[in-house]
Write a structure and sequence with these properties.
9 strands, five-stranded mixed β-sheet, Immunoglobulin-like, mainly beta, 104 residues
Length: 104
């Protein structure tokens, strides 16, 4: 008798490519459909300045602040996206660097 193993399904992501000009993501607003799994790759054109030298997702409680360094992409994911508006912010004052709108 063989036992079946429960193996987790691999999540398939839709790649979202953004640029970062040291202050904002380009484009600054990205609109996507609900229910998707998205991987954001943000490529800085230059080093971030002041508090904008870091970027993180404002919609999660996990600590995942990442440095904004010239030509070093940073990645974030959204799994099973729920309708709403979400922001990428700096780590210091939570200044918005970009926005994601998930539509139903």
């Amino acid at each position: 008798m063989s036992q079946s193993q429960n193996t987790p399904q691999e999540i398939v992501y839709t790649d979202i490519l953004l640029w970062h000009d040291w202050w904002n993501t380009i484009p600054q607003i990205t609109t996507l459909a609900a229910g998707g799994n998205y991987k954001f790759t943000i490529t800085p054109e230059t080093n971030g300045q002041w508090c904008m030298s870091t970027i993180k997702r404002a919609w999660t409680t996990t600590v995942e602040s990442k440095l904004v360094l010239e030509w070093e992409p940073v990645e974030f994911t959204i799994n099973d996206a729920v309708p709403g508006t979400y922001a990428f912010v700096c780590n210091g004052m939570w200044m918005e660097q970009g926005k994601v709108i998930i539509e139903a």
